[in-house]
Specification:
The protein is mainly β and about 600 residues long. The protein contains six helices and 45 strands. The N and C termini lie far apart (about 110 Å).
């Protein structure tokens, strides 16, 4: 090999070596995420508090809480609650691992303050919430050490209610009564209900209190909006002492039995391992359960008064209006008739009128809250377009006729029912009506029976058999509404579903003591009512021909016997009517009966 080729080969080998070296260096320079340990799921822990928790003779303006890791704040102005409430909210900031709380107004003398942090603090990296910690201090020489626990539950759904302001009011005001305080002043002590509806007070004085909770929609700690949901304890409450040191000393073999509301306090305040807590055990102190509802204004009012269409006036009231007098203030001609119709709850009154007048003076009066006189036009407003007005004049108003068929099917033992949009006052039966069975039997002796008070429902007086096809043919002008409207030709083809496609439920419901009646409702899992029965004594309940699916049972203790659930009234000291749900879900299958062996004991 001559010298020239030797030099070329030498350069090639050198370049290859350089490239390999660069590739190795690049690989070494790549940053690879190290495989760490298990995810941090521990909440931050307070290592030091200055002044210490439960300190007395507090005279400063700031509190320092130092944690074992860096923390971040989550809207502390709304999530941190201080009792007694302050007019000016403190400022919150972090410095390293320390939370600094600075008060912006002078503190009251000889007063115990309690700070609840809610969901305001979490660790910086994993977002683990710092919850269940209460910081207490006193500006006097002693600290109030009593506690009170409870839970807020929806009275209508029995589900836990989160985010309720729960207040304690003491009778130490010379100008206000205890019952008027929620409307006028902030509570003496305040806390917030958690996701499970539970709440807890600490640092309480040994006094009697009114316990009142509400959904504070405008965040002013005062019940001053009519749509704010409320809950209250009927009796005055008194706080109690929970000896947490004794609880900690009672730990044997790293396990302790305590009620579920104390788990967070044990984990944080007493440094107990969460997996060592066995729950629940019945506590020896009361847990106050509050049932929430929207309090109705007790004053009767007119919500709406209007001409719906020609010959139909509607009056809508806040409450059932049987005692409200709605009368015409002028002499009516013989051709003008009025048929009053109340809604099932009787809070809506419909006036069906034969349209022979252009206007009418009407008085609405209940001798207490309503005294109203109004002149009503009985003619709808004219259409803006002349073409549309001419078209409306050519259109003849018809009686709307519906029925109870579902996909052209009737359930077994179910009558065929016609449903009208106004009361039917005349039925013109004649021989041209046809009832056809399996296409070979023609029967024209057809009869209908009114099935409700006003004439909105009429039933065909026939029985039907499964596996049989039926036809019903009605000519026009068989049914006539109160205002004289009638219908076109009606043709129906239908059959009866087989019993085997349905399921049934049988059970016995026991009446609780001192309750006049109980409303038993069968609902879907989502709460839609399928069927309702009212019992006045212990008896068997039967729900027949149910579509396959999952159902629930709901009982309402109908104390006022009005046939529906009634909310409470704080002003009248009435709790909402109690609702009881049957444990679990009932799964209905086709061609199968659920026959409950044990009676459903409905407890008061």
């Amino acid at each position: 090999m001559n010298f020239y080729y030797f030099c070329i080969m030498k350069n090639i080998v050198r370049n290859i070596a350089i490239i390999v070296t660069l590739l190795v260096l690049c690989r070494c320079a790549n940053i690879v995420t190290p495989s760490g340990g298990p995810k941090d799921e521990k909440a931050p822990v307070v290592l030091n508090a200055s002044p210490a928790n439960n300190s007395t003779n507090f005279t400063g303006k700031t509190i320092h809480l130092t944690f074992d890791e860096f923390v971040t704040l989550n809207n502390p102005s709304n999530n941190v609650l201080i009792s007694p409430p302050m007019n000016k909210k403190p400022t919150f900031r972090t410095s390293g691992k320390t939370l600094i709380i600075k008060f912006e107004e002078p503190l009251k003398e000889n007063t115990t303050y309690s700070i609840s942090f809610g969901d305001a603090i979490k660790d910086l990296h994993e977002g683990n919430l710092f919850t269940g910690y209460n910081y207490n201090f006193s500006t006097g020489d002693k600290i109030d050490s009593l506690s009170l626990k409870g839970k807020v539950t929806s009275a209508s759904t029995m589900s836990p209610m989160e985010g309720f302001v729960v207040g304690l009011y003491s009778n130490d005001n010379d100008t206000l009564t205890l019952d008027s305080m929620p409307y006028r002043v902030k509570p003496n002590y305040v806390t917030m209900s958690n996701k499970d509806g539970s709440f807890e007070f600490s640092g309480l004085a040994d006094k009697e209190y009114l316990l009142f909770a509400f959904k504070d929609n405008n965040s002013n700690f005062i019940y001053d909006l009519p749509n704010e949901e409320i809950a209250f304890n009927s009796d005055i409450v008194r706080p109690y002492f929970i000896d947490y040191k004794a609880i900690k000393n009672a730990i044997v073999n790293d396990s302790i039995v305590i009620d579920s509301l104390s788990v967070d306090s044990l984990v944080i305040d007493l440094n107990v391992k969460k997996d060592s807590i066995i729950e629940p055990a019945k506590p020896d102190y009361p847990i106050f359960e509050l049932f929430s509802f929207v309090q109705e204004d007790s004053i009767q009012k007119i919500f709406k008064k209007e001409l719906v269409e020609e010959g139909l006036l509607r009056f809508v009231f806040r409450y059932p209006a049987q005692n409200v007098a709605v009368t015409a203030l002028e002499e009516l001609p013989d051709t003008f008739n009025i048929m009053p119709v109340y809604s099932p709850r009787k809070d809506t009154l419909l006036w069906y009128c034969t349209p022979s007048k252009d206007s009418l003076w009407i008085s609405i009066n209940d001798d207490v809250n309503i005294s109203d006189t109004t002149h009503y036009s009985l003619k709808p407003r004219q259409s803006v377009s002349r073409r549309r007005r001419v078209q409306e004049e050519k259109t003849v108003k018809k009686l709307v006729v519906k029925n109870n068929l579902k996909s052209n099917k009737l359930k077994p033992e179910q009558p065929l029912t016609f449903i009208f949009d106004e009361p039917v006052t005349r039925v013109n039966m004649h021989d041209t009506i046809l009832f056809i069975v399996d296409q070979d039997t023609i029967i024209n002796d057809v009869h209908f029976t009114q099935a409700d008070k006003y004439g909105f429902h009429y039933q065909l007086d026939k029985t039907f058999e499964p596996e049989t096809k039926y036809q019903l043919i009605l000519p026009d002008s068989v049914f006539f509404g109160f205002r004289g409207y009638t219908h076109d030709v009606i043709k129906l083809s239908f059959s009866v579903q087989e019993e085997s496609v349905f399921g049934n439920i049988f059970f016995t419901a026991t009446m609780p003591d001192n309750v006049p009646q109980v409303i038993i409702e069968l609902t879907t899992e989502q709460g839609k009512v399928i069927e309702k029965q009212i019992i006045k004594q212990t008896e068997e309940i039967v729900f027949l021909y149910l579509d396959p699916g999952k159902y629930k049972l709901k009982a309402t203790l109908d104390l006022d016997a009005n046939g529906e659930w009634s909310p409470g009234s704080f002003d009248k000291k009435l709790q909402p009517e109690k609702i009881v749900f049957y444990k679990g879900t009932l799964e209905v299958r086709a061609n199968w009966d659920i026959d409950m062996d044990e009676p459903w004991v409905i407890e008061n």
